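Q: Give me a protein?
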Amino acid sequence: MLERIAAAFRAGERIYAQQGSPLYAALAKAGADDPDILALASKGLAGATPVHLFTSVHYLLLGGIADPLARFFPTLTADAAPPGQAWPDFHRFCLKHRSELERLLRTRPVQMTYVERCRTLLPAICHVAEQSGEPLNLIEIGCSAGVLLAFDKFAYQYRDGERIGPENAPFILNGRMHGDARLRMPRIGTRCGIDLNVIDPRSPEDRRWMLATCFPELRDEQQHLAGAMDIVAESDIRWLEGDALIHLPQVLAATPDPVCVYHSACLFYWPVEAKAALDAQLRAASLTRTIYRIGIEPSERFDEWQTGALRSPSDADETAKPSGEINVACYRGGNAESKRVALSDAKFGTVWWLD
């Protein structure tokens, strides 16, 4: 088992560096050969063991624990120390706070969410709204802090001179659009979020966990997330905690038409049987109505890159290439028509519209 965790750490060195976190890259490189850290990380979420541990450490530091390790985190100091020097303090910190870290790894899933991910959702929602009509009623599976359920509260700019969103939006999410996607802000009706562990944006501890999931170097993204959670806290959202496969049939029955179910970087972690069960539920529900589904998930290429199977040392920035897929499905009469409408990069900033 530890060999699998070590492989995830080795792959993480490249991934975290390319996603903007030299600190996590340095910790992943050193951690791959440390049995104590690998054993601790093995308590975390399968498929995300390194970042789950790093997030848990970040969470404790954001909570005010005074430790020399904090000087390496840009979220905690204006002039962070060199990442390559962090390992001794990180190792010591993990052993000193092992019990607290194990508790977090057992009870807090990663739930990493950046507001910037909304840049991939808006084009797909526009596409669905054109077919379904408005106001569009939303159900998000794996909603975390509900940031993507409030996507219409933010402003966007994909093309020069084309601003989309409310005038009083707290910030503008800048992205790039390749292709002829028709962009506007659809009218939204009801909103419902389902998650195994719902994040309450009004809870200081939940907010701190969400901010800890942000890579420590991405301070702008962390500020956006904090502002987005303020908006979510004031939004009319129905929250359901637990297994989506249990809640979804009842939620669908209570949601008026038109309805769109969506998920983002969520089903990537589901077993094959659970994915098939979700599809079966939507097919059954579509016997008497039309249901739309948006899936924004990493591609197989990203999976290979994350696990280290895909190596391209000549490529300076793998994250700038398409590594995610945006699929839209229409469920009607017990059948489903699915289409890949776009691709996105690993940072959810660039969309290649295909439809």
About this structure: The radius of gyration is 20 Å.
